[in-house]
Design goal:
227 residues, alpha/beta, Rossmann fold, DNA polymerase, domain 1, 2 domains, 6-stranded mixed beta sheet, 14% strand, globular
């Protein structure tokens, strides 16, 4: 159960009864200044104060594109009268498992952002989704608090993620600390790096053709989807 300090700005979260990801719920319940309750939402999967969030794992995103649910949900979110947000959760490995062409996914995302004018955030895990939702709600409703909460919770998550990614890159032959930093500075994450071509990787000063090929082959043969 999350703790609430006296005078603290509270984010009240309603979780739709159909949403039962325990990893995500654990983060919400442990977060300071957050009150969580189950309920029935006509629109969205989560409501944070008045912010409505539609959470889509990549398999669910692919399924909702095929059966037409995605654009109906986007339409309801747009017409709700409340701030709305899509969060797409998953990794490149999850996308490959769906068998859906990346261009189809990209086309759907473009429609959500441009046609329906809804913001869309990317997440790699349920835990990151929970943190993104809380921070988004605080930026909208308590902008003066958002920097403090980012420094206390999200920054720790970012630092842990950076360390984990550095450890993974160190395991690739020929990639030491300096090259690992260059790769993360260029691509932002291992997930983004797996989408890069050999040409894009070797364009980084200090990483030659042989290193680029080794990095590419290693990541595509044994990609850690949770990093």
């Amino acid at each position: 159960m999350s703790s609430v300090r006296k005078g603290e700005s509270i984010v009240n979260v309603i979780v739709d009864q159909r949403e039962n990801n325990q990893r995500l719920l654990n983060v919400l319940n442990r977060s300071n200044g957050v009150r969580v309750q189950k309920g029935h939402l006509h629109t969205g999967d989560y409501q944070l104060n008045h912010l409505l969030v539609e959470r889509k794992t990549i398999p669910d995103l692919a399924s909702s594109i095929k059966d037409g649910r995605l654009f109906m949900q986007a339409s309801r979110l747009k017409k709700s009268g409340s701030p709305g947000l899509f969060i797409i959760e998953g990794t490149v490995r999850d996308l490959l498992k769906t068998g859906m062409k990346r261009q189809v996914i990209q086309g759907a995302i473009i429609s959500i952002v441009l046609k329906f004018e809804l913001p869309l955030l990317r997440s790699i895990s349920p835990e990151e989704t929970a943190l993104l939702m809380i921070y988004a709600a605080r930026q909208i409703y308590f902008p003066r608090d958002s920097k403090r909460y980012k420094s206390n919770s999200v920054r720790k998550r970012i630092n842990d993620k950076f360390r984990d990614q550095m450890n993974v890159l160190h395991g690739i032959p020929g990639v030491g600390f300096k090259r690992a930093v260059l790769l993360l500075k260029k691509f932002g994450s291992i997930a983004n790096l797996t989408e890069a071509s050999v040409e894009e990787i070797k364009s980084i000063p200090g990483i030659g053709n042989k290193n680029a090929e080794t990095i590419f082959k290693t990541l595509h043969s044994d990609f850690s989807g949770d990093i």
